[in-house]
Amino acid sequence: MHFPKYCFSPLPVALGIFLIAASAPAAGQTPRASSRHAVPARAEIRAIYLTGPTAGRALGRRLAEQWRSEGGNAVVFDIKDDSSPVSFNAPLALASHLRHPYIANLPAWVDWLHAHGLYAIARIDVFLDARLVQAHPELAVRSRATGGVWREHGAATWMDPSQPAVEDYNLALAKIVAASGVDEVQFDAIRFPVDGHQADARFAYQAAHPEEARADFITSFLRRAQQELKPSGVRISIDVYGITGWQHSVDLKATGQNIAVLAHYCDVICPMIYPSHFFGHFDGFADPSAHPVHFIEAGMQKFQKLTRGDGVVIRPWLQAFHWRTKSYGPEYVQEQVATEHAAGGGGFMLWNAGNIYTAPNAAMPAMLAAGSKYFSGGYPYPVTLIGAGPRVAAPRDPLRPGRTGGPGPQPGPARRP
């Protein structure tokens, strides 16, 4: 399938040259030795999410150590969220540059995670970027009525996914992040906006090719990401709305997320199957949040059917927050994890925007003790004596008695982040 690349509202020449040059290694520069090692494609990943500010503080290290000690084996952390500066000072013209970045030394932080037995997943909000809208409104979605920046429910937050400069910037950032040694680059907000006054939203591609489908641009971005990131050895995952598994045409047309096609260009698909986010008597349930087993099970089955034969891993985001959920607690987390595991998923990631994991922390000991009901077991990275902070006692592998680490060589020297 042909996916054209249009060139509307290009960056000034000097700025574009800087963006490209800054993403490449300096002449004569020796590539950094990474602590990343090969991890089996089907390794079970059990992760929590950390914001950039949390990841860069002692709090993030404490949360990560606690999670590993309870049986977790991975951390998802923000490189760029929907409104904040980039978490580290990336050498790119469009990136924010802080005097005190959240993560002062990205490679050192990744080394620290590996040394503490954790698979590192770097999350990038792609087209939802309020900071960049403010800094470069010429690259944002435009309003037909005002000619200015389009607003979603009053907030100017969306970059135009059909602007080549926006695509170039996010891919350049992803390549720098991959070079830091992370195991996986995760693209979130890899879609068009779906809320707000859609008829008022104007995209660059519509000037010359209004017939083009939104899915063409999302697929083109991910295909290019695969081509440019594959040489680094990093894995690619994408976050998608859980509801896209139900294949309602209105959702597919609005988001631009054609799951069956996107599966060709990534390693992991991460549907956000939060029961609380299904509305209006969805699937016949007056309160979907009270039926986590149904929605996790149905969602997993639908995504697996859509991607059958592609070799892509389905690893869902699970709900770790109270919103619209009266029954939320440790048992609620356990129900979700057990359902994901029974459905043959590739593990799970727990989302809490405030990084408060009281319920999951309470649920993990029981899940770890129950063994194969919840986990397949395994730790991609062993805990070592290398790195900042005290060593955390490695938990036993529930399915491999006596083993606490994972496959592969020991991580190299870690620097304090």
In short:
This protein is an alpha/beta fold and 417 residues long.
Explained architecture:
The protein has twelve helices and eleven strands. The strands form two sheets. Strands 9-8-7-5-3-2-1-11-10 form a nine-stranded parallel beta sheet. It has helices at residues 13-22, 52-55, 58-69, 106-115, 130-135, 164-179, 214-229, 249-255, 259-262, 292-306, 330-342, 358-370; strands spanning 45-50, 74-80, 119-125, 142-143, 184-188, 201-202, 235-241, 268-272, 313-314, 317-319, 347-351. Residues 1-30 and 385-417 have low confidence and may be disordered. It is globular, with a radius of gyration of 21 Å. Helices cover 30% and strands 12% of the residues. The protein is of the alpha/beta class and 417 residues long.
Assembly state (oligomeric): single chain
Uncertain residue segments: 1-30, 385-417
- Strand content range: 5-15%
Note the gap between the termini: 44 Å
Structural class: alpha/beta
The ordered H/E elements are HEHHEHEHEHEEHEHHEHEEHEH
Q: What is the CA-atom radius of gyration, in angstroms? A: 21 Å
Strands side by side in the biggest sheet: 9-8-7-5-3-2-1-11-10
List keywords for this structure.
alpha/beta, 12% strand, 11 strands, globular, 417 residues, 12 helices
Compile the SSE list and pairings.
Elements lengths: L12 H10 L22 E6 L1 H4 L2 H12 L4 E7 L25 H10 L3 E7 L4 H6 L6 E2 L20 H16 L4 E5 L12 E2 L11 H16 L5 E7 L7 H7 L3 H4 L5 E5 L19 H15 L6 E2 L2 E3 L10 H13 L4 E5 L6 H13 L47
Parallel strand pairs: 1-2, 1-11, 2-3, 3-5, 5-7, 7-8, 8-9, 10-11
Antiparallel strand pairs: 4-6
Helix pairs in contact: 6-7, 10-11, 11-12
